[in-house]
Amino acid sequence: MKKLLFLLSAILLMVVLGACSNEEASKGEENKEDAAAAKTEAADESKEVRSALLSYQRGSD
After folding, report:
1. Which residues are within 8 A (CB) of 41 and not within 5 positions of it... i.e. 6 or more apart?
2. Distance between CA atoms of residues 57 and 53, nearest Å
3. pTM of the full predicted structure?
């Protein structure tokens, strides 16, 4: 009886740990997607600023 209880407890623990690790992994993927989107936004803003500066330099020559 004790062996069966120990076995069921071990299985339950493995299931709980597996569920927690999958939740954290999916959060990590969301963070990576957010970081990639922020990086793309920053690159677009940088291009806009560079374009504006070049336009300003051409106009003041």
Report:
1. none
2. 6
3. 0.40
